[in-house]
Amino acid sequence: MKLLRAAGDARLTLFDLEPEWSKPSTNPLPKGWHAGYILDLSDIPEPPADRFGEDLATLGAQLRERGSFLVVLATPADWYGHWTEPTLAFTIPLESPDARRLVESELKALQRMERLVWLNRAEFTAIWSANPSAREARRLARLVNSAPDEDAVSALVDEFGDWHTTVEDLLSKDPKKDSDPTLLSTRVTVWAGALLHGGQRSSVIKAADDLLTRLNVSRDAAHVLTDATTSRRLEAAQISRDGDRAYHDKTKQGLPEALLRHLWDEFPTQHELLRKWATDVAADRGTPEEDARLVTRALLRLAVHRHDRAILDGLANGLAGTRRTLAVETLTTAAGDAELGRYVRDRLRQWVDTTKPSTDRVDLVVEICAGRWGVEQPALALTRLGKAAGHKAFGTPALIHAFEELARQRPNEVRKAVDQWLSHTGLESEDRLRRQTLGAFLALVSSDVGTDLILDDAQKPEARQRFVWAWQALLATDDATNATEAHLARWRERFEEDADRREAVLDLLADIFTPPRLRSGLGRLMVAETSTLHPFWQQVLEQAAHRDLASREASAQ
User: Fold this and answer.
1) Taking a C-beta distance cutoff of 8 angstroms, is the pair 299, 269 a contact?
2) Do residues 485 and 521 lie in contact, with contact meaning Cβ atoms separated by under 8 Å?
């Protein structure tokens, strides 16, 4: 941002771009005047096309002519290969800034100049020698800022180091007498307590026993009753009780998260087993909902810290039935979070942007987009809903509900999205894009709110032309015909006696059914009862036939 400010003039406006693509491309990137764009391309899902580097160079030249600039952020692990060669002339490798200087800058920005002297203490010496990443340095600055006083320096340094000594001590307790739990039993209880920090004591023990069972340690009645008691197991794991709740040391802020990170870091070959165990604890109906919520939040923080897509995928697939609402709640909150949001939003998009996605994941994305997050960030939600529509049957109720909610609360954004979808030049040639667009359009117009939005815009010639194309394409699509005709039948019920809008609706329907190839659908709509033709649809047929005849006569002249 400082470089952009220095490179531009006083009119420069900065924008943080959030990628919404399946594969990086310069086509959707803005090309405004006097703008500074920042695009984060770290953690690219798949490599860009071969032309991407060359296209970036061309875009950069165009932007400079407009007094604008684009800064692309990437990691060495992402930015490599022959496609990057055209960008080498303007690629700047940056080392992590000096950690101490960054911490000092952060504290000054927080108006904590009096705490700068703390950084001279011996406890920080090893940290400055290691020169941690910018992200970690900023975390350290936050810890220094939030410390109650200088006496807390040792504790905050331990917390910054993920309580390494404490964690190792907890996981290294060999039994000293027969009544003590085994080393494995203690470790498992420590991990269960970290996953369920603040949960009911019974939930912690149940989760620990479940993991032992997965490790082929018998937990039948005889083994449980001859094993260490619950109290001894919790004591060995240094888990204390507060009423019926179980906690790791509350004075060590961040210890539960540190324990889970240590578990994933130190046992990489067991990730699949651990993910399944943790997700099943949350999905188990025997786990109280509040405790299950603790688990999902712990897993979410772990997933974002590690950039572990598999953990989020496990939550999406594992929390089904009555626990689906918990997955929706957790990911909704995370999608709008300042720190976690971008990563979670990107994963939601990826779930609906593959060729054959999991049905559970698609349904989850639809529910999230229909709720609070969709209303707060409608443009992002509509992108995901549009892609999800390509994987759902035409007329799916959940999809209709999602578009109805957004049309009711954010009509302008819905109107803009529909206009963009129907204006896309690839609709006739790209089957996947066509399927997504038609599914989304039908879902929107299948509710009264969505219908009203479209009818209002249908007064504009260009919009009307696009809407007519969409309905005609739906009527010509075999697996969309029934849902489309059912939707149009509801129009007759709604508008037949509406003196204000009846003629406008008839006029639009006549445009839709002008091509003779679509008349079979109109014929099915006309039959209200056996051997009875409904006058509303008769009128549509007459107007459509008249327009078709007039069009053919005009073409013949």
Assistant:
1) no
2) yes
What's the CA gap between 285 and 283, in Å, rounded? 6
Strand order in the sheet with 13-17: 13-17, 35-40, 69-73
Angle at 375 between CA 390 and CA 414, to 5 degrees: 55
Statement: the pTM of the whole predicted model exceeds 0.70: yes
Nearest residue to 445 (alpha-carbon basis) of 426, 465, 421, 470: 470
Categorize the per-residue pLDDT at 29 as very low, low, confident or very high, splitting at 50, 70 and 90.
Answer: very high
Q: Which amino acid is at 299?
A: L
> What is the chain's mean pLDDT, rounded?
90
Domain ranges of the chain: 2-90, 99-144, 168-267, 336-476, 479-557
- The CB density around residue 277, as the number of other CB atoms within 10 Å, is 20
Whether the predicted pLDDT of 545 surpasses 60: yes
Q: Beta-strand (E) ranges in 64-180?
A: 69-73
Measured distance CA(386)–CA(433) in Å, rounded: 9
| Sole residue written with tokens 């197991």 | 233
Cα(362)–Cα(373) distance, rounded to whole angstroms? 16
Cα–chain-centroid distance for residue 115?
A: 38
Q: Where would I find the H helices in 308-429?
A: 309-318, 324-335, 341-352, 359-370, 372-376, 378-389, 397-409, 411-423
Does the pLDDT at position 557 exceed 90?
Answer: no
